[in-house]
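go over this chain:
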Amino acid sequence: MSAFDISVGGLMAQAAAIQVTSNNVANASTVGYKARESLFVDQYFKAVQSGGSSGAADFGAKRVDTQGALKASTSVLDLAVQGQGMFRLSSAVSGDGANNYYTRNGSFSVDKAGYIVNANGLYLTGYQPNTSLTGTTPTIAALKMPPADVAPLASTTGQLVANLDTRAAEPLLVVGGVTTTTPKTFLASDASTFNSSTTVQVYDSKGLAHQVSLFFKKVDSTVVDDPRSLTTPKASATATQYEVYMQADGVTMTETPAGNHGMATLGNAADTAAAQANALANAYAIAAAAADDKASNYSASKAAYASTISARTAALGKLAAVSPTAALANASPLAAGVVFQASALVTVNTDLATALANLGGLADAKAAADAAVAADSISSSGHAALVTTATAAAAALSAYQTGTYATATANQATQQAAFATAMTAAAADSANTNPDASAALAAIAGYQTSDAAVTSSGSAVAAALVDKNLADASAVAAAKLNGEAVAKSRIGTLQFVDGQLVGSLTQVAGTSQPASPALYNAELADANGIPLFNVSLDLSSMTAFGAAFAVTKNSADGYAPGALTGLSIDETGQMSGQYTNGMSLVAGQLVLASFNSEAGLDPASGSVFAETYASGAPVLGTGTNGSFGAVRSMQLEQSTTDMAAELVNLMVQQRNYQANSQGLQAANTLLTTAINMGR
């Protein structure tokens, strides 16, 4: 051991440290680069004991595994791992003979074959997409960009989730302006014949979009076995019911014998059926419109009749107001008699109106007493008093009906006959020209005119009523025919108990699936009868609560052809392509790797590392899964080199190198002195 050896060892160690620092500085801009630290060991005491080399020795460089800062970029294929994990690269697309490498440098691009590669042409690897591009498989190979174009996929399944407002009233038939108790016949073009509707878009095998429309019509509730009941027999429950109708591209779909199954075609048969259905609907619409017109005419006739009655009443009052003076009696005794009879008729009419009002009051009192008796079910003195009151009211009503009211009615009839007799006699006196009789004769003529108008108007009302009844009957008959035809297009009936679909109240044991799912098939064929699609629509999650109609899910699989518009990579590393048809298809998922000892990896050119015995075998996984970090797209991990610290290190290492050289120079001086002493 000598001072020369110690100084040389120190110089070599400091030179190695300068190399490490210089390498850190050189890679200050290298993506994903991890800075190194020099390691030294003390050789002095080992050398004293063994006689070997002494001083300091370079013990290699330690990789400082800290997270580098992430910098945004404009490329989707610029990737970074925020946390633990390295990208896995391969020298070949697939195969056992490929060499695998690992890196934190996530700067990737696409080669001419569509594979994702780094700057050295190594392939980025990951889990491969399945055949339908909806997920990934366990197979790991080189990742490729999603296809530039996708072929159409015919729809096969769909789901509708919506709430039907159970507060809504059942659509009832209106004939001649009058609402009946008969349910309205469903008509897709008339929103008043159903309660709610929605449309599901599906695709055929050519990628063409079709509209499958569902209509829901509330009908009478019914009693069903409660599927939740555990008793035998089961308890009963009231079920709210909705009929379901379906159309595809406006063509009505009908139920097949198998049940909960609709089908339609676009061929001649379907066109004929649609034309017949439209013809029936049009016939009903015409008949209903005619009934409305006749009802309007009838209402107008009744209003006109009421007007003539009012005019005749006014004419009678005017006639009664003519003073029956002695001059009138001398001039025209018959006219004077009419005036007298008119005055008497007005009086008895008033008496009869009063009697009618009193009769109504007594009837109301009896009804109130009867209601009070009915409401008091307890046998007590109070109940006895109520019974007495009701009995007295009934007696008073009966007495008035057979007494005052009967008398007023008889007097009115007698006086009406006397007035009519006087009017008939006065008609022969119309030639009287005495001035004293002119006012009476004019009033008589006015009454005669108003009475004739009442008679004519009454005939018009009767005729209008006949026309209305005929039109109503025609509309009802047309509605019946239309209803029989449309009933065939009802594809099913949904029943709800406590707002839940009956078939969904019980489930298949061990699953969350309803015991009786509500599935409705929509089948469509082209003009040649070739199937275009067959979509099974699941309505099992429908509800009927007291809330507004609302659709929360309306979807079907299948899609039109599309062209790639973009690529996205989420934090798990899943790659998805976006297409012009609105689809997002999976292109694969990046695989990440971690090692028990990343320091044991063998560095290679291009910022990549190879597995070694010291590093251990890689553990593979995906972003955010387990201990793996998140994959960040459009970001790159920057070098962890701290330029200021590295420059300080260079100055310190240069000083240490110079200090070691001074030791070598001192040893040389001592050796020279010793040699000169021997001379």
